[in-house]
Design goal:
The protein is an alpha+beta fold. The protein has 8 helices and 23 strands. The protein folds into 3 domains: 283 residues, no CATH class; 32 residues; 111 residues, no CATH class. The relative contact order is 0.11.
Length: 450
């Protein structure tokens, strides 16, 4: 019962663990392998096209100085948490490897072979890489559970045939493969994608066995795990076209970034693996993106666009506001009861009561100015200097509203009254008073005049 609880706890930890993309663990065919792997280089090559990524695993086998090489020949296996693309030129995979996976309850997705070569370190040119006949066999599979966990991410199991050149210090074995799903896009807004381009995350790791599809295989064969030697071991990521490359984040802090020594216009990110960490996953993570020519000018174009928008847009907005103000000023307002429409007067409008206080033959010039105001137009003839005419002009505008909804109302038209009053004064005494009123209707707001 305690063992079942332990297994359940391990599975729960695996489900709760954060997802880390693509790693590898070497397994031998026999328990307690007497050799180690070293040096080891896991190199991913990234181009602006993205898609399936080329990955090369380069290694050799190291024997202790006290151990003979006789009788150690055995196939190696590589556990790879991810799907692989078969090399059609090398033929089909080994049916025995497919049966080995399906007998353990896994669902087969694809199978095939991968290119395997032995690289001679002391040769140059095309004959440096010596192909291994038949390459390496692999199967890609998933684990499908009927419970809430559902199907797992794809994983691959690769069988690497034994080659005596793996023990030769003059050679390095090289497994070449194409992997799907190694690069994952990072979420972002459409503004970020438009101005700065799409961002991606790429992760390489070693000793990563937490994936549900691989953990069962690891538990079954953990006594066959091949450990790293004291020789250098690195995770490498090469980014082509580094003049268009933008790296936003790099982890861990011990990772290094430098131009590639063997490839032009290529940026290399590397991380040395620490063999003392045991089975602890060691992860190299890069967040990056490739930008276009226009996006490279974004730091310059965006401030210029804001500056231009602030100046040109301000003029446009002011013109639009003036047009709307002229068109809608006075047309929209609050509903008032009949008779409560607000009148607007310009100039001097004299009503009947005011005019009634002016008595011809009695009221003087100064009294007229006191009653009607001094905002007046005076006309005088040279032939009759003792006679002058005082003219008062004014306009009264009354909006007529219509209720639209609730307290909201619009103006249907304006009633306009133009008042003109002439007061004839002779010898500083009023002789005659004439008042004229002209009424009209306007459908557009009348301009405000002083």
């Amino acid at each position: 019962m305690s063992r079942a609880r332990l297994v359940l706890a391990v599975l729960l930890l695996l489900v709760a663990a954060p997802a880390t993309a693509h790693a590898q663990v070497f397994l031998a065919s026999k328990p307690n392998p007497p050799f180690e792997i070293g040096p080891l280089f896991v190199r991913a090559s990234v181009t602006p096209k993205l898609g399936a990524i080329d990955v090369n695993v380069i290694w050799s086998v190291v024997l202790p100085a006290t151990r003979s090489a006789a009788g150690i020949e055995q196939d190696l296996y590589l556990m790879w948490p991810g799907s692989l693309v078969p090399d059609a030129k090398l033929g089909k995979s080994d049916p025995g490897l497919e049966k080995y996976i399906t007998d353990r309850g896994f669902v087969l997705k694809t199978s095939g072979r991968l290119a395997l070569t032995a690289q001679n370190l002391y040769r140059t040119g095309n004959d440096r890489a010596e192909p291994v006949a038949g390459g390496a066999h692999f199967v890609t599979f998933v684990r499908e559970d009927s419970g809430p966990l559902g199907s797992t991410m794809p994983a691959s199991f690769i069988r690497i045939p034994w080659d005596p050149r793996a023990l030769n210090r003059a050679y390095l074995m090289r497994l070449s493969m194409k992997t799907d799903g190694l690069i994952r896009p990072k979420r972002g807004t459409w503004v970020e994608h438009t101005l700065w381009g799409q961002r991606y995350r790429l992760s390489l790791s070693f000793n990563e066995v937490r994936q549900r599809a691989l953990f069962r295989l690891y538990l079954e064969h953990r006594d066959r795990m091949v450990r790293l030697s004291e020789d250098p071991a690195q995770l490498l990521i090469d980014f082509a076209d580094n003049d268009r490359l933008k790296i936003d984040e790099l982890a861990p802090a011990s990772a290094t970034r430098q131009p590639s020594e063997t490839r032009a216009k290529t940026e290399r990110i590397s991380l040395f693996l620490d063999r003392s960490e045991g089975l602890t996953p060691q992860v190299l993570m890069v967040q990056f993106g490739y930008f276009s020519g226009l996006q490279s000018w974004a730091p310059v174009l965006i401030p210029l666009a804001i500056f231009a928008a602030g100046n040109i847009g301000g003029v446009l907005m002011r013109n639009i506001a003036e047009r709307l103000s002229k068109r809608w000023a006075g047309r929209v307002g609050v509903w008032r009861k009949t008779g409560e429409d607000v009148m607007r007067e310009t100039g001097v409008v004299l009503d009947r009561d005011t005019l009634g206080r002016i008595v011809p033959g009695s009221t003087t010039y100064e009294q007229v100015l006191e009653i009607c105001g001094r905002t007046v137009e005076e006309r005088q003839s040279l032939n009759a200097p003792e006679r002058r005419t005082l003219v008062y002009r004014g306009r009264r505008i009354v909006p007529r509203r219509r209720r639209v909804a609730g307290l909201f109302a619009t103006v249907t038209h304006w009633d306009v009254e133009d008042h003109e009053t002439e007061i004839v004064v002779e010898h500083d005494v009023v002789r005659d008073v004439q008042a004229h009123v002209r009424r009209s209707r306007l459908t557009q707001p009348a301009p405000v005049t002083a």
